[in-house]
Structure formats: C-alpha cells, structure tokens
Specification:
Layout: H1 3-7, E1 8-13, E2 16-21, H2 32-46, E3 53-58, E4 63-65, H3 70-79, H4 83-99, E5 105-109, E6 112-114, H5 116-119, E7 126-129, E8 134-136, H6 150-155, H7 161-168, H8 174-179, E9 185-186, H9 192-199, H10 204-208, H11 224-230, H12 236-246, H13 249-259, H14 263-279, H15 282-297, H16 300-311, H17 329-333
Parallel strand pairs: 2-3, 3-5, 4-6, 5-7, 6-8, 7-9
Antiparallel strand pairs: 1-2
C-alpha cells in the first residue's frame, strides 16, 4: 500500500462512499498525494450508480484536517522550488470540484478543521459540525493569507465577521460556524456513528433529519456591533485604530491579536477579501488565491512564520517589513500579479446539480 493509500482510506458501505483522511499524528494534514487520491476517488464515484452519497471525515478522533503540510511548504520556500505551487494548483481544483460535485457531499467537521481542512469540507453540500468543532483560517499567523476558497467563504459571512476571522485567525465553534455560513447542521458527536449507518441506506436528508439538534449559542453574535464597525474601515491601519479606540475589551484583544500577525499578510488578506466580494464565483476567487499563494511562497514572511510557529516553535517571528506603515501599496499589489509558473485557469463551472 502506498503512502497516499495509507493516508486516505476509501470504502463503500451501502449507497455511501467514504473518504477518511488518515494522518492522525499530523492532525490529518493534507499532502499532494492525498489531494490527488481524493480527486481520483471523486472521479470514480461520480459515475458509479451504486454511490449516492460521498462522506469525508478524519481519523484519530481529534479533527477532520488541520490544513496543508506546512513543513513541506517551509522546505519548498527555503529551496525556491515549485512543489507547493503544484500542490496548490491541484488542491484548489479539488476545492472547486467539491463545490460543484453532482452527488451529495457530506463533510463531518468534527474536531479541528483549519486551512486546507476547510477547503475539503466547507464547499460541500452538507456540512455537519459538532460540539467539538474548532474551525479557523489561521494563515496570517504564518505570513500567509486564507486560501482554499477561504476568502470566498469569509467574504460571504454576515457583516464583517469574515474580515474579523480572516485577519485574526480566530477559532470558532459550531454556533458561530453556522452563523458565518461555514456549516449547515449541528449533530452531537456521539450520534455520528449512527448517522453514518443511516447514510449508507437512506437519502441524505432522510438520514440526517433525526440527528439534527439546535446549535449551541456562539460568541460572535454578541460582538457584531464592534466587529461590523471596526472592520468596515478601509485599511488595516484604520481597523487597528478603531479596535484600539472602541472601548470593548474584546476589541482590544482583537487588536492585540492583529499586532502579532504578519503586517504584509494582514494587508494582502484584507485586499483579497474585498476583491472576493466582487469577483463572482468560487473559481475566480481561487484563481486570485493561487496568485497570492505563489507570491507568498517567494516572500520572507511565509517561511519565517512557519519557522517561528512550527519548526523552532519560538513564537517570535521576525516579519519583514516589520510594521504596517512599512508595507506599501506596491508590496501588496505584487501578490495579485500573475505567477511566473502560469495562472490557475479554472474553466467556468457548470450549473449546480439539484439533488
């Protein structure tokens, strides 16, 4: 059995096909081979009349997926090679495919779901969260910007909630995931095994309905006033000033969080979110994210952020530029330029299939 076969387990049970991400020691972080295996499985099941539903979940009990394999990205960034760009090209294509998949795609967003884990779940048809769900796009903390369609999803969140989550990288639970449009249903984690049994025998909604419960109350709804006011500002500098001057303790804490992030990543992320609101379909946003990701790969901050958070774990990144004032318009604009290795050209998506 190959590593990809070890790391993505495939099986069918009744009318359901199962994708299980199986790198529990790495919180099921995605490798390029895993992305390809998932895509190959979706191709096979798309035309299989016996498969009516596709389900993705994570092994190990700690989460669906903590993101991409950032150690590999770190090595690639230091070496100046293109393996990460090749990985992102296939990963973003997979994200777009999941969003348009013609059969019900059910994501069990139980436990930790971050970065690339959001990409293989939150674009699906049926996104299930539990009391254990912790969802985030924490990229600014490593000198990166939300990708895998994250800027598309967060741009659609009510008010400025998506801007808050994208810039701070804050983790949210089930209630806030539903509020922000990142999930659809709350099911207690203890009910998931029985739900999976029912999905093998019954259509998705018939199987799901008995298990859906009222979602626990989230935290973000109570903070909408300062979030919508502060993050509506036109620049990161003004957002920071509004957070500092608002008076709410949570706003001050958000400002403290932003102060530790990459100044360049913050400005690029804000620009990407604002552009995503007017770009149109997911495919166009993914194309923009690919440009940003390739530019980040050649930047100082991505390798430095991963070093500080994952490699040396000193939690003291030395960002360059080190302040928001030093990040000029040209510094941001270069992240939106066509990459040297060519664009991610996603063909116009077909109309979504009703099921």
């Amino acid at each position: 059995m190959t590593a990809a076969e070890d790391f993505v387990l495939l099986r069918t049970e009744g009318h359901a096909a199962h994708l299980t991400l199986n790198r529990p020691q790495a919180l099921n972080a995605l490798t390029h081979a895993m992305v390809r295996r998932v895509d190959e499985a979706l191709t096979a099941w798309e035309d299989d009349p016996d498969v009516q539903t596709v389900i993705i979940q994570g092994a190990g009990g700690r989460g669906l997926c903590a993101g991409g394999d950032i150690r590999s990205i770190y090595e690639d960034a230091r070496a100046g090679t293109t393996a990460s760009a090749d990985f992102w090209r296939d990963e973003y294509r997979l994200n777009a495919r999941i969003a348009r998949y013609p059969k019900p795609y059910v994501a069990l967003m139980d436990g930790i779901v971050m970065g690339g884990g959001v990409g293989v779940s939150a674009h699906g048809d049926v996104r299930i969260v539990t009391e254990r769900s912790r969802i985030a796009m924490p990229e600014t903390g490593i000198g990166f910007a939300p990708d895998v369609g994250g800027t598309y999803l967060l741009a659609l969140a009510p008010g400025e909630l998506g801007t808050h989550l994208a810039l701070t990288g804050a983790q949210i639970g089930a209630g806030d995931a539903l509020l922000c449009g990142l999930a659809d249903h709350f099911v207690p984690s203890g009910d998931l095994p029985r739900l999976l049994d029912d999905l093998a025998a019954r259509p998705v909604w018939d199987a799901l309905r008995p298990y859906v419960r009222q979602v626990p109350h989230g935290e973000l709804a109570g903070h909408r006033s300062w979030i919508d006011d502060c993050y509506a500002a036109g620049t990161v500098e003004e957002i920071f000033a509004r957070l500092r001057g608002h008076g709410a303790r949570a706003a001050a804490e958000a400002a403290d969080t932003l102060a530790a992030k990459s100044p360049t990543a913050l400005k690029v992320t804000l620009a990407a979110l604002r552009c995503a609101r007017r770009l149109g379909p997911l495919e166009r946003v993914l194309e923009q994210e690919y440009r940003i990701s390739c530019a980040a790969l050649a930047s100082h901050d991505l390798a430095e952020g991963i070093r500080a958070q994952v490699i040396d774990k000193d939690r003291s990144p030395r960002w360059a530029p080190a302040t928001l004032a030093e990040v000029g318009g040209a510094d941001v604009e270069r992240y939106f330029a066509p990459p040297a290795g060519g664009e991610l050209d996603l063909a116009s998506a077909p109309q979504e299939v009703a099921w």
